[in-house]
Amino acid sequence: MSSFSVRFFAPQQPLLPSTASSFKPKTWVMAAPTTAPATSVDVDGGRLEPRVEEREGYFVLKEKFRDGINPQEKIKIEKDPLKLFMEAGIDELAKMSFEDLDKAKATKDDIDVRLKWLGLFHRRKHQYGRFMMRLKLPNGVTTSAQTRYLASVIRKYGKEGCADVTTRQNWQIRGVVLPDVPEILKGLDEVGLTSLQSGMDNVRNPVGNPLAGIDPEEIVDTRPYTNLLSQFITANSRGNPAVANLPRKWNVCVVGSHDLYEHPHINDLAYMPATKNGRFGFNLLVGGFFSAKRCDEAIPLDAWVSADDVIPLCKAVLEAYRDLGYRGNRQKTRMMWLIDELGIEVFRSEVAKRMPQKELERASDEGLVQKQWERRDYLGVHPQKQEGFSYIGIHIPVGRVQADDMDELARLADMYGSGELRLTVEQNIIIPNVENSKLEALPNEPLLKDRFSPQPSILMKGLVACTGNQFCGQAIIETKARALKVTEEVERLVSVSRPVRMHWTGCPNTCGQVQVADIGFMGCMARDENGKPCEGADIFLGGRIGSDSHLGVLYKKGVPCKNLVPVVADILVEHFGAVPRQREEAED
């Protein structure tokens, strides 16, 4: 077991203007179908031997478990990626030319792989020499000062610099060059941000209720828990080697709303609020994930923890995954594959023995999330639980913003709110703590009237898109501009009377989460009417979020992108009650 420990500082809560807030799984598989994890599996005792050990403060795969490991594992063995941060290796890299970095395998692996532990992703294919930087932004809460700082970073990169709101309530900034990184990291620290351990085989941004602390209907304020999770994962932004050598990436969320804005069914660990014998705590879901070959919804661990055990439980699950997870084929290294292999009861016992008390309570039957709940729309103006205050949700088309946009968002947060912004998993932004006396003026601000509307069209408000091949080397098609263009053209053909969520992803890695959308578009190569290769999309239908969540299924393969508009219009008419514009006009 790890001897690593971390002191938790009190979560820094944004100052509120008034009183503070006190299924059935379905699997989509691209390859062979799988079955739900077995409850009990016969597991050889040797299989439960931890595969990693601590050496000089870092966790290393033992020699006897190195046969058949994937190339990324070999790179981690050659040098622990966290050393670039914890031992200041980034400072030396930043002084080298890219030509020199590319000459040696060690430094080339640094820039293409190990720097992802610092949140830096080299865009070798489309922006050679430039990086995307992913932050840690627990619960999606940020400040105007942090937003201005990020704007100042991307502004210097001109047309190469921009920022995206991600599907994990996070910021990604683009255009970064390596010589600037040490100074950027210092600047992030000065405004209370970090990019540490946000990529590759690490825990991704902890997601929570975007309306935490202000929602009149909330179950629990998720901010203290997501803040503590982030502090634990990064050791208060100093680096935590104990959880930085996982077999693959790992997602966590804390649910605080009946609306399930947090999407618990697609997280590796989801905390579901529940009481037990008069105590407040959480039931646990585990194993939800998306990948190119398999997508699974999270399943119950049959365990409940008190609110005080949120961090020990997270640590225990991560250590079980770190110690026992498969490190061969990267398509089979997510945590659900380990649960499959061990069975849920053996996996649960491995988690239990890593808890401080060496046991886990069984799940509570007093879940607090209401099963029958119509998911609320947070876009537009809504009253807060604090009397006299409201929040306003604004639509950020496919999550893309420029430096000037960020500065203006920061100004609006200061002028109308409390200097705070909230990012959502649908790539939108919420300005909380707006005095009701200012509500008339805020929607008339030019940025909201011209760019980021609080009241977008029905189809636009549910639009999500990954980065696409503008910047991402794995994307097969362009997504963001195409998603907007297709949606605009479809809206001219049909009238839709109820929300329809459309998600775009550029490749099977499904960063755009197409399987949870009403209509999903996954980039692929297709063939046009002449049989020639062209950009296309596989279309998915039927994904749902909320208490009756399930994953969508493949509806139509290989539709050329240039043919998508009439196909989508037909889908909306046939499956979502849309009315063709010509018929609607005739009836009028």
Automatic annotation (TrEMBL):
Q: Which cofactor does it need?
A: [4Fe-4S] cluster; siroheme
Which pathway does UniProt place it in?
A: Nitrogen metabolism; nitrate reduction (assimilation)
InterPro entries hit by this protein:
NIR_SIR_4Fe-4S, NiRdtase/SiRdtase_haem-b_fer, Nit/Sulf_reduc_fer-like_dom_sf, NO2/SO3_Rdtase_4Fe4S_dom, NO2/SO3_Rdtase_4Fe4S_sf, NO2/SO3_Rdtase_FeS/sirohaem_BS
User: Is Translocase set as a keyword in this record?
Assistant: no
Q: Please indicate which superkingdom the organism of origin belongs to.
A: Eukaryota
Q: Which UniProt keywords apply?
A: 4Fe-4S, Heme, Iron, Iron-sulfur, Metal-binding, Nitrate assimilation, Oxidoreductase
Note the Pfam families from the entry.
Answer: NIR_SIR, NIR_SIR_ferr
Q: Where is the Nitrite/sulphite reductase 4Fe-4S domain?
A: 200-358, 463-572
Q: What is its EC number?
A: 1.7.7.1
Nitrite/Sulfite reductase ferredoxin-like domain location? 124-191, 382-443
According to UniProt, the reaction catalysed is:
6 oxidized [2Fe-2S]-[ferredoxin] + NH4(+) + 2 H2O = nitrite + 6 reduced [2Fe-2S]-[ferredoxin] + 8 H(+)
Q: Which family does it belong to?
A: Belongs to the nitrite and sulfite reductase 4Fe-4S domain family.
What is the protein named? Answer: Ferredoxin--nitrite reductase, chloroplastic
Source species taxonomy: Eukaryota, Viridiplantae, Streptophyta, Embryophyta, Tracheophyta
